[in-house]
Predict the structure.
Amino acid sequence: MVKAILYDGSRCIGCRACQVACKRWNELDAEKTSLSQTWTNPPDLSANTWNIIKISHLGKDSSFKMHFATYRCMHCLEPVCVKVCPPRAIVKDPETGAVVIHSERCVGCLLCVEACPFKVPKFERGVGTRKCTLCFDRLKIGLKPACVQSCPTEALKFGDREEIVEEAKRRAAEVKGYLYGVEEAGGTGVIMILTAPPEELGLPVVAKKVYEVPEVISVKTAAAMIQPSLSPESLRMMAAGGLAIIGLGIVAAVAVRRRGKAKEVKEEET
């Protein structure tokens, strides 16, 4: 049965234990960062930071309050990133619902980066495109995601999605919170109970529908389709990805040629 993470913002204390656990389990490199005005640190996701706690300061004087929200891959039920990936480097596990990027297949085209309504996948040269995996490797051996395991206030819970959604609705009604992830993008594998509207907490405003796109198209066709909307940085990264593909093709051709020559030599010797 498809799984899900429940995040309860009314229980979160912003300790960032989940961020540390994610870094440690996935062996992600540390990053040079600085403390933002809201104290969110690091300020955004990256290829080496897959989960952050967004901190928002809302209200004034006696009504002032700090609000917390987790920001990570939402593991959509109908992930648009899977649909747009030309080499099919992104797959959705039918058993757990985890959406996983296989970096060894990624060609750096950045289509998933541009298509994701939650703006989650991040590309870094020399690292590739990466994001939260729902601790897919831990799930396969019967463990909970590292972030869930580490949360000291039980603001995070892991279980069957249907049960998580029902509990989220019940808790949200009790604390008069806002639900996020139940219907966004057609439903996701991360269900949040927020203490303020998601847009006030820095979370993307996402339509409550499945995002329809061509299923799997070639890199060349896709690039032509989305080029007008790509940022200059994305275009530079896509160009770098194209050069990398050419380089790999040359290496592969040389290897095949060498194997052919070795076979010919062996036949001559026999």
The chain has one domain: 1-258.
